[in-house]
Design goal:
Number of helices: 13
Radius of gyration: 20 Å
Number of strands: 0
Structural class: mainly alpha
Largest sheet: none
Strand content: under 5%
Distance between the termini: 13 Å
Helix content: 40-55%
Number of domains: 2
Shape: globular
Length: 302
């Protein structure tokens, strides 16, 4: 997809559709627009922060004032919804909600959409100069710190429900929180980031670039979690994190990445010799595979 196609996609999305679920949750009567559908049926939590990040960076790179204005409107309108959403009307986000919604006090945010929204708000401040972005980030972070589930169960290849830990993908949280600390100097962000470090997985790479038990977990988010390790190194200067990062990079390049550049068939890391860590596709009849809930295609991540 070219830059123009990507830009046109974001710009062409209806602001009212993106904001519809938030306005409904905030108690707006006859909220304009309609839900986006799918994972975004209740609201846009799954994608909202990521879209803000994309628009903030794209407009900065290309001087796109129209795209910046669109992103500015989305942040300002979301900020208007926050008091109502966080006072009792909001519901869970769809993705990542089990064990992490934290009730209405978090405005319907669970760990996954919260982390993405923090990234979006930071970029709207840093690259877009939005005057409300940091104050809004402070508010949602205070609510998250007070209410989020902190079980932090590490991922495991079995059962399926644990392939991204519990709460889902909690181990990606530290990256943007450390970024917020670096941008603001506020200890609240560093203290909350420190909660979400992931030694149970990161330390597999502390002394080797070929660990024997790193396979089987959700590939995409377990690649992303090392962005948190990188920020932990940047903030603390602890050389252990740099060593972990180097070893993980070598493992990804030598043991996980296909000639196409993709990785993670069936969204899982494979064994170092290339064997898939999950055997269900080859051992179950096709009819069972088609019926298996929550399974996506076997194509590698790209």
């Amino acid at each position: 997809m070219s830059r123009t196609h990507g830009r046109d996609f974001y710009y062409g999305l209806s602001n009212d559709d993106i904001l519809h679920g938030y306005r409904v949750a905030a108690g707006t009567a006859n909220a304009p627009g309609r839900a986006l559908g799918g994972w975004c049926s209740p609201n846009s939590n799954t994608v909202f922060g990521q879209w803000l990040q994309s628009m903030a960076r794209m407009q900065r790179a290309y001087g796109d004032k129209d795209l910046l204005e669109k992103a500015n409107v989305l942040v300002s309108e979301y900020a208007k919804c926050w008091p109502g959403m966080s006072s009792g009307a909001a519901r869970g986000s769809g993705r990542g909600t089990p064990g992490g919604a934290g009730g209405s006090a978090t405005g319907g945010l669970s760990h996954y959409p919260y982390e993405k929204l923090v990234g979006g708000l930071l970029d709207m401040h840093h690259y877009g100069g939005h005057p409300e972005a940091l104050a809004l980030c402070d508010k949602i972070t205070a609510a998250a710190a007070a209410n989020f589930n902190r079980d932090r169960l590490p991922a495991n290849r079995e059962p399926w429900a644990l392939h991204s830990g519990r709460p889902g993908e909690w181990y990606t949280m530290a990256e943007n929180l450390y970024r917020a600390y670096q941008l603001t100097g506020k200890s609240m962000y560093k203290e909350f980031a420190d909660v979400w470090l992931y030694p149970a997985y990161w330390d597999k790479f502390a002394e080797t670039g070929d660990p024997k038990d790193a396979q089987g977990v959700h590939a995409y988010s377990h690649c992303n979690t090392f962005a948190s390790a990188a920020l932990a190194y940047d903030v603390t200067g602890d050389a252990k994190y740099l060593r972990i990062l180097k070893n993980f990079y070598d493992w990804m390049q030598k043991r996980q990445t296909y000639a196409t550049g993709g990785y993670g068939p069936d969204e899982r890391f494979v064994y170092s010799d290339g064997r898939w860590a999950i055997r269900w596709r080859f051992t179950r009849p096709a009819s069972s595979a088609r019926a298996a809930p929550g399974r996506r295609s076997s194509y590698p991540n790209t």
